[in-house]
């Protein structure tokens, strides 16, 4: 089931999310909803708080279909960056909660991430390039952090004002 995506600013996007301690069927079905919502958007990553669920759960798939890569849907419960490279990388980031706004963000180029998979199994993997950026961006969401928080205050305020306007327009359309 596709879920509505919250648009910044929203207090739920600023919260530190709670760890998942028991992998219930409910959480597994939530992770299916997140993948469906992410692919439909379309996007390459989605964090649970973006659909209003304040639990440490993210979904991502950065496979490049244009390069002929097969889809690689990943859902991660309690994901954690356990090591990161000194080498850094700049990517132009965007966010499904901040539509049509993009900005360069610098982050570690390579990260090791640990997480629980849908079967409750502990996994660890090294991510590089776009995957590394995406997984760090999504984990940030679980700590109430958005990519615009890396920007200079003026730029951040400008984007936030645009989003406030967008939300008003959407609310009017609904009314
Ligand atoms: Ni995002």
Describe the structure.
This protein has 175 residues and is of the alpha+beta class. The protein has one domain (11-174): Peptide Deformylase (Alpha-Beta Complex), CATH 3.90.45. Helices cover 30% and strands 29% of the residues. It has 3 helices and 7 strands; from the N terminus they run αβββββββαα. The protein has helices spanning 25-40, 129-142, 153-174; strands at residues 45-47, 57-60, 74-84, 88-95, 98-108, 110-116, 122-128. The protein has a 5-stranded antiparallel sheet with strand order 1-2-3-6-7. Strands 4-5 form a two-stranded antiparallel ribbon. The chain binds nickel (II) ion.
Keywords for this structure?
single chain, Peptide Deformylase, 175 residues, alpha+beta, binds nickel (II) ion, two-stranded antiparallel sheet
Molecules bound to protein: nickel (II) ion
Unreliable sequence segments: none
Number of domains: 1
> What name goes with the CATH superfamily?
Peptide deformylase
Write down how many β-strands occur, each being a DSSP E stretch of 2 or more residues.
7
The protein's oligomeric status is single chain
| SS-based class | alpha+beta
Biggest pleated-sheet summary: 5 strands, antiparallel
> Tell me, what's the shape?
globular
């Amino acid at each position: 089931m596709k879920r509505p995506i919250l648009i910044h600013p929203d207090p739920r996007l600023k919260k530190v999310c709670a760890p998942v301690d028991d992998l219930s069927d409910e959480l597994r079905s939530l992770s299916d909803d997140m993948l469906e919502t992410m692919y439909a958007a379309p996007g390459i990553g989605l964090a649970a708080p973006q659909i209003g669920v304040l639990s440490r759960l993210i979904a991502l798939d950065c496979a490049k279909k244009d390069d002929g890569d097969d889809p690689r849907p990943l859902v991660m419960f309690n994901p954690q960056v356990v090591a990161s490279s000194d080498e850094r990388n700049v990517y132009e980031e965007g966010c499904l909660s901040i539509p049509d706004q993009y900005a360069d963000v610098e982050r570690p180029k390579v990260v090791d991430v640990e997480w629980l998979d849908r079967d409750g199994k502990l996994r660890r993997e090294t991510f590089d390039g776009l995957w590394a950026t995406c997984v760090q961006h999504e984990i940030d969401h679980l700590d109430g952090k958005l990519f615009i928080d890396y920007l200079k205050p003026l730029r951040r305020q400008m984007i936030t004002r645009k989003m406030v306007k967008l939300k008003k327009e959407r609310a009017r359309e609904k009314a």
